[in-house]
Structure formats: structure tokens, C-alpha cells
Amino acid sequence: PAITFIHADGKIERVETGEGESAMQAATRHGLDGILAECGGNAMCATCHVYVDESWLARLPAIADVEDALLDGTATERLPNSRLSCQIAITPALDGLVLRLPERQV
Ligand code: FES
Fold it and tell me: What are the 2Fe-2S ferredoxin-type domain coordinates in residue numbering (predicted)?
């Protein structure tokens, strides 16, 4: 599956995801700017914050308590479509997912 990131400045980057990868892992493997992922995907840092395109929100896995708590500490405002990209496992059903990057992660 491939997913699309839209940078805060409007630049669009499409990345191929590998088997079992999270959206964060796909982004960092491609060297994408805008995702820091300081904790390496362990749901401890909130520097992998993304805004999920509204049309995809209902198709994502539910927000676990630990993610929910971390989302209260993101560098840019938490919105109803905020998620941590390390907690979004990419499956074939998410092919085409669109994620918007916040202006900063720290
Ligand atoms: Fe740290 Fe997602 S990479 S919370």
C-alpha cells in the first residue's frame, strides 16, 4: 500500500509502505521531513503527530488510552483528527491514506 503525506506548506509526498509497517516507519524510512518519532514508535514521545484526512478517519483503528494521553501533549494543537502515526499500522485497506503533517513536532 502507498500513503500520502501533505506537508504544512502544501508539498505532497507519496510513500510506499512495507509489510506490517506503521505510517511513521514508512515516513522515516523514506527520510520524510515532518515526522521526528523520537521514541522510535513506542508511543512515548508524540513527535509523530499527524492530522488524518477526514475521509479516512473512520477506517483507522481506535485510539488506545496511551495514544489518547500523548495526543494531549502534541506540539501543535490537538484536533479531532489528530493521531500518532506510529500507532497507525498500514494494511491493504489503508492504501491511499492521506495524512497531513503539523507545522512542527516539538
Ligand atoms: Fe513516539 Fe510515535 S514515534 S509516539
Answer: 1-105
